Structures are given as C-alpha cells and as structure tokens.
Amino acid sequence: MDRRDLLRAAAALPLLRAALPENAFAQTYPVRNITMIVPFPAGGQADLAARPVAMALERILGRPVIVDNRAGGGGGSVGNAAAARAEPDGYTLLMTLSSLAVLPEADRLFDRPVAYEVSQFMPIARVLADPTLLAVPASAPWKTAQDFVEDARKRPGQITYGSSGPYGTLHVAMEMFANSAGIKLMHVPFRGAGPALTALLSGTVQAIAAAPGTLKPQVDDGKLRVLGNCGAQRIASFPDVPTFQELGYMDVEMYIWAGLFAQSSLPAPIATRLREAMAQVMTSPDVLKAFEASGSLVAYQDAPAFSQFVAADSTRLIAAVKKIGKVE
C-alpha cells in the first residue's frame, strides 16, 4: 500500500465509524487509558473522592484510570472547562463538586466569558454528599459558633477565611453563613481546598468551611476545632457538632457533593458501561473503607437520580450566588 492509499484509508476511518452502530465501539470500551480530571489540587473533597474511585474503576474496566489534578480559574473552572471540551468518547471523565453549576453564573454576574455550561455534562454517578463544616484552629479563642459570630460582629471584616476560589463551594458556604449571621468576614481565595486547609493550619487564615473528610484527620490530631455543620442533620463523624439550623440560622444549608461526569454527547452504550462500572465501584469494600476512614460516607446515586439531584441543588446554589452578589 503506497502513501496515497494510506491517506485514503485514514480519511475513510471517520466515515466508517459513523456508519457502524454506537455499541460496536462501546463493546470494546475501553481500549486505552482513561483520564479522570479533578479540577482542584490534591487534598480536597474532589480529590478524596477521585482516587479510590479511579483505583476501583481501573480494576473493573481493565485499563489505567489516571487522576489529573487540573486546578485553576477559581473554584474549579479550568478543569471543568477542559473536561467539557474533551472528545465525548469516555476517555476523559470529570470528578467535580457542587460548584459546577455556580461558576457559569458567577461568570455571567461579572460579565465574563462563560468558561462552560452545565448542559455540556452528563451526570454518571454521585459519589459523596457531605455538609460543609466550619473549622478553626484548635488554638483559636472561639469554642462555639456563637463565640465566632460575636467576635466577628465586634471586628467586621477582620476575621479571615480561606476558600477554593471565588464562588467555589467553600466560598459560597461561608458567605451563606455570614449573610445569615449578619457578619462580615474577609475572604482569602486559594486554588483549592487543600491549599486553603494548609493556610488555616499555618495561621495564614483563621477559618475555613470544608468537607468532613478534609477536616477529620486534622481534628483527630488536635489541630482543628469544628464549630458548625451546614447540613440539615448532624453527621456520624462529628456527632457533637450542631447544625447551623439548630443554632437559629435557618437558611444555612450547603453540601459539598462530589460526582462523576462525562460529556453530554457521550454515546449511550458507553454511558451505560460507565454507570454499570460505577455501581460496582460504590459497593467495593476498598472504596467504602477509604471513605469511612476519611469521615465521608458513600452517598451513591445512579445517573437518573443524580441528574435530578444536580438540577435541584443547582437551583438553590444559583439563588444563593445571586443573593451574595459580586464579591472578590
């Protein structure tokens, strides 16, 4: 076969693929490595969810699943956008957080180009769904959430808190609490929950709102104290920590869920294969053990239920962002 024949054959491949039924390719999926984008640095909730899931998916699918921490843009927008632009072939997945729906609204709020739209994604499975917790250094003077609020009222704008970036999950949770309590805090954004936690431990900031799995090792080591729970109910890993609703802040409810997504135009047979694999992943003893050790319990939802959950949660979070308005 000469060079012209090779070129003609190469040009015909896309036509051949289009002529074959989708399941002809799905039956062999995957045939190469899969990349799982995590739009945050290591150490945060999305990374905590991604690594045990990637290892289990690798065993089930028979191909390496490589976690790619692609932080940047504040709140995960760079990684989310990269996943949205990827080829919809099942080889680029996204493990992201509830800020997925918030960030496009923040772009519109500031009249910025929208990095991506939620409609570009197909929910595959929810993995975790933890309430955010307000944490401070164990050496801090605040023993309770009320201590924190009273001090903040005396010193508006002087207590600093870290976040994963403007309008990321941690930022929205803290601003939701601050608005309800009638206090003003100083926001210090970082590239992810991991760096924000490091800043809290080093004394660069004085508070953070983060997931139980991110905070528990530091609390167990006596380095941090948790003052409040943004969920509707207390949780097993921090049973003595009251919810903000118990404390009278009835409009404070925020969850830092992590879920696996693909592109919205992913062929249905490949989506089904991924859903079936995730159903096995979320009953894997290794995955359950990893999440339990971190203080985050599995909150698995298959695609239909997860899609409904994302729609409902996104509506609530977008309303919260509009109430918060423009902040840096």
Automatic annotation (TrEMBL):
Keyword Electron transport among record annotations: no
UniProt keyword Signal, yes or no: yes
Entry superkingdom: Bacteria
Keywords: Receptor, Signal
Signal peptide: 1-26
Pfam families linked to this entry: TctC (PF03401)
Similarity annotation: Belongs to the UPF0065 (bug) family.
Protein known as: Tripartite-type tricarboxylate transporter receptor subunit TctC
